[in-house]
Amino acid sequence: MKIEAKRFDAVPAGYSHTQAAPLCLLIYVLAAVFFSLGFLVRDAPPLPWLFPPIGLLMLVLAASFHHLSVMDQSELLMIRFGPVPLFRRSVSYADVATVEIGRTLLLDGWGIHMSIRGGWVWNLWGRDCVVLRFKNGGTLRIGTDDAEPLAAFLRTRIRAF
Q: Are strands 128-134 and 120-123 parallel, antiparallel or unpaired?
């Protein structure tokens, strides 16, 4: 029985980019402050029982927003904060109507939330973004430090669908 080797160069190259940001360092510092306060105020109930769990929550949030990865997964675009993958979203290329390069507002800030202009914002750091407009009328702004290549890749993918 002959086994054929799969040729990986025949598969079109996908997109994968991970953006890191210093915002998580601030949250790590907050976690350390809450852990320290829990130790230092042992004589003031309920603070010794309140601060360590808040510190743990801050630690998990910092690890969850350490970086933002955007990856092609065949028919989907995967958007994931990490390395702790609590927050992730996938977008079907077939649902996307248009792609454009944009900028988030200062009021949009960072994280995952609704924009004051409408639609969702997934942003880790900076104001550059790629704006996806869906066929159903929704909007998603993906913050990135790689806007041009991401937009170009998405345009080729939505044409294929």
A: unpaired
pLDDT tens-place string over residues 18-38: 999 888 899 999 999 999 988
* Closest listed residue to residue 21, CA positions, set 127, 118, 126: 126
Q: Report CA torsion sign: 45, 51, 52, 54.
A: positive
How far apart (Å, rounded) are the C-alpha atoms in residues 122 and 66? Answer: 13
User: Each residue of 46-98: pLDDT tens digit?
Assistant: 877 889 999 999 999 999 999 999 999 989 999 999 999 899 999 999 999 99
CA dist list (Å): 76 to 92, 93, 157, 158? 4, 6, 9, 10
